[in-house]
């Protein structure tokens, strides 16, 4: 099931600018200096391709990295609102069910299946007639999700999972968990984000339960338009199918077309960038870092950036560890690309985890972007539309 990387050699010329004193005025890496192919490209293209899931962090190929980097470049270089406002959800007066082309009306349709399937199953359990629409295949990623036991127990309390189901999806458990700044304050806590769960198995279990309860899943169908009438919502899919529902829940993630409409193509105010790997070969692998900083702000690209680490034992083996380098920043054209951040990650990881890159077998490379927006007046207007919950 899991995507396993080949044991690739990580001996590459360190042609990016190397750290010559943290916090010095020297740029760590300048865009023009990044060699082609980059170290990141060589590493990623040497890995065997695994299952790619539709949800965030579900793709780990170099091509997928470039796709997200193009999206991120457009985001940070756009001026503000560009082009006409996307019209995905529109308000129509009157009623639609009397003249509906399709007699079936769902109580709830959940758009987006990664976390959406959990909401859908919980509503099904309460007796509602529910359908899920998922653009790709409805499956969880291979890479663990980290979560606290308390959060996961909610799924048992709600009746969606049994404790036996939980046993089968929890792949690893570890304590203690650290937060801190190297050389300064360090706080060790217990039971915070200390479980690794297999999203692939967890989503599969919930999906099976949902289907058994009579839930309907439409995979390989993207929602392209929603018309909100007084009595129901008419949903148009990209395969020309039309569905009707009394309530629609948007669970399409950060890049939901409904969120794009609410934001009117607005440039995000902030961004969280994350890069990392799941790799094999860590001798010290019993504790985790929830949030740990090893350096003061570092010059990268044209910006000074404060980086943080996360590190967790991974469920795939005793020496397998997931390590993420992430940062929060204002959005401007000088922000680094994900590939630039990965170049920095390869440079900093050995010191942070006391390992040699050459001693690690990279299983998969991980990355993602999380845009953030300040609230605006228009948002509250959109939220007041009937039949909708919005996820962002
Ligand atoms: C590298 C990385 C590591 C992470 N690690 C963790 C972790 O350890 N623990 C944790 O809790 N979270 C983690 N996250 C956060 C992660 O975003 C969430 O756990 C989870 O993926 C969010 O699920 P979601 O369903 O809200 O959104 P998404 O995962 O973005 O899923 C949205 C779904 O909607 C579908 N969709 C999109 N558009 C349409 C459309 N038009 N029609 C129909 N379907 C559509 C997509 O195909 C997708 O399946 C991580 C994220 C990244 C990037």
From TrEMBL:
Stated name of the protein: Lycopene beta-cyclase
